[in-house]
Amino acid sequence: MPKVLAVSDKLPIRTDSPVHKGKVRAVYWLTAEDSARLITERGYDVSPTARLAVMVISDRISAYECIWRGAGGLNGVPGKGAALNAISTHWFKLFKEKGLASSHILEVPHPLVWIVQRARPVLIEAIARQYITGSMWRAYTKGERNFCGIDLPDGLQKDSKLDKLLVTPSTKGILKGIPGVPEQDDVNVSQKDISEHFAAFHFQAATDIGVYERLLTEGFDVIAAELEKLDQIFVDTKFEFGYVKGKDGRDHLIYMDEVGTPDSSRIWDGPAFRDSKQVVENSKECFRKLLQAHFSDPDILVNKDRMVERTALAVDNELPAEMLLEVSRVYVGLAEKITGAPIVVPEDPEAEIIAVLRDTFNLID
Predict the structure, then answer these.
(1) How does DSSP assign 200-220, residue by residue?
(2) Ranges of the chain with pLDDT below 70
(3) Which of 63, 100, 208, 339 is least surrounded by CB atoms within 10 angstroms?
(4) What does the radius of gyration of the chain's CA atoms come to, in whole angstroms?
């Protein structure tokens, strides 16, 4: 069975802060001393007082707010972490080359590791949609004709292309005290909500709202154009943004987290959709559909009122290993198409990460 990095938050990386553990990534905040040392030794183009972090991506796979595992001890998707990092790094580099904005990535010492600059996140999941599908389509079928403050016409068809790219943000985390915005994670909001309460979303100025929308739409267009060359359709995506302090002492709005990956985007196969209107997913949607087909009561997966049952489903069930290997083929295959290079799947990821962070970066005691 292929090796995966299932746990990414137990590495002996030197830090003086609690390790932040997300669904698939762990962030180790470096000490002020190690940050300053690496900025000097590695020549990073950041403020000399910037705080750095080591971000380690695992091969775990989450869907419907749960972590899933396979039979035979396959606690992740082989190559998934390396594929996601390679895709994001590729797009971040292209954004910078085209003059959009920088990202938080400073160096890539291993396929599963980024050295990053600490950013202060904007509390928005910046979502852009070119087609009506997913949650937007589900809302539309229930009669909703206003989505994130945008009026939608009658007569739209499932999976059809929208007249223009729509920006449909949602909250990142639970925001309190904003009239009309429920105090829940991942709640749809309008541009009006953001403009009237920009500080609550951690924008430093109201004018930065226009900057984030421009970086979102221009970034979307860059990826869509590149995917079109590969005969792939960029359907919708989620970006995240944050502020970092530059060498000039000013705060800059940058891209962060990940962009244009199968985890954060829907990507459809062009020939299948063009020739037969068949949706062939080259993204995490393929895994969601496999889950829905695997369980006898797929309503558990999508019904928010059945979260307790869903959590038990994920904890108590091992998925067929072939299901996770199929996802691996999708992720790795897409990454190799996008980057034009083979994706190296680490043979012993934990040992490799410890070795490079010890020998090259002196971050292991």
Answers:
(1) GGT-SSTHHHHHHHHHHHHHH
(2) 1-2
(3) 339
(4) 21
